[in-house]
Amino acid sequence: MADDDLLSPEEIESLLSSAGLSQPGGAPAFSPSPTSPPAPTATSTPFGGKPAAGFASSPAERTLDRAEADLRAAIASDLAPPGEKRLGEPAPFNFPSLGGSRASAGTDLTLQALEEVELDLRVELGRAELLIEEVLKLREGSVVPLDKLAGDPVDIFVNGRLIARGEVLVLNDSFCVRVAEILTPEG
Questions:
Q1: How many CB atoms lie within 10 A of CB 162?
Q2: Band of pLDDT at residue 106, cut at 50, 70 and 90
Q3: What domains can you pick out in the chain, each with its CATH number?
């Protein structure tokens, strides 16, 4: 910025007086709001230090005092009496007990609680591996050979896990599966 662009103190004072922001004698005009705290005195400052000479009653100091009062009002709920828990204070975290019997924990599920859970049940007659070319040639009436023979047990899957084997029956014109063997989970 060039020195020509700077205003002299007299020009600044004349601009302030024309805007109504200065009082006679050069002191700036400031009218505190009704909720603002009283202006600090030479013996008290918001931070416990001594005010600078001529700074105790400046608008900047009063603005800082007002901001400090507003901040105190905003966090008044945090300034609880000693002994009460305040915001921001660390508190120990209590981990739940992992030991003990299931019945004592009070979270033991009964079979009735699981009766309404839906499961995906699939019966697999057999499998076949085909090339894309062979899949594209499939038409109505095409026969796909499977890896199981007629009469071999079919696999019963629940949610993708093999749980049993059975045999296919026809009952009242519907296909059915009779469970012949329940498989125990390995491991």
A1: 13
A2: low
A3: 7-77 (no CATH), 119-182 (2.30.330.10)
